[in-house]
What we know:
It is a single chain. Strands 1, 2, 3, 4, 5, 6, 7, 8, 9 and 10 form a 10-stranded mixed sheet that branches. The protein has 7 helices and 10 strands. About 30% of the residues lie in helices and about 20% in strands. The two termini are about 30 Å apart. α1 runs parallel beside α5 (about 170-190). The chain is globular and about 45 Å long.
Amino acid sequence: MSSDETAGTPRPQDSREPQDSPFRVEQTPRDEAPQYVLPLVARIERAEPPHRTDALETAARAVLVMLGDERSLGEGEWAQAMRDWQDARIRKVVRRARGAEWRRAEALPGITVTGKSAQVRVFPPVPLDGWPKDLARLQVSGTELDDPEPLSPPDGAAPVLWMSPDVDMSAGKAMAQAGHGAQLAWWELSDEERAAWRDSGYPLSVRTPDAALWRELVASGLPVVRDAGFTEIAPGSCTVVADHPALR
């Protein structure tokens, strides 16, 4: 699975967007700050791997669970690490584990989020060169996942993370990108809207639109993830549009 460093575009009408946002394509003072990464580990058992879309959705929810957890807020035990991470560029790395590797990962401080077929554990941010050894040894690349059956249309009343039909990504890269999309949506919401999403269990779906709908979504003013181009795809590529009902 792939590591990921991504920029994003705010909604044009949003005057709250700071000029040194961690989701801007150009260089900002945030690039000079100590850089942190949000580790995610997906459980990929050889005999029964998760479905691709469920893995993407579970990774996105894992990011939201970390953002909304009381330990990440205020004076919580993870709050300083979360602030350090969000004060710099927003980076996420998805690694894979199975068997004893997964059990060792579960023993570290973090949160496991379970989907229909997928399990993803998210950990508080760490410095780029400060990974716990039981996570640093896990593989990043080489995993491909499939959806064995056609996907149903998304629930229009719930958030949808629309993945680009034009960009080919590995499962890990796509999981990180889905996490970025969920985070962009989270940042755009009011406190009341965040609380409502959290209290409902962070419902969302991940889908890939056709080319015509994708063009409409990118131009709609909804949050758009643009990849920084460090792995797999060209810099500036639009990869995800975060479509939350409250942002339409």
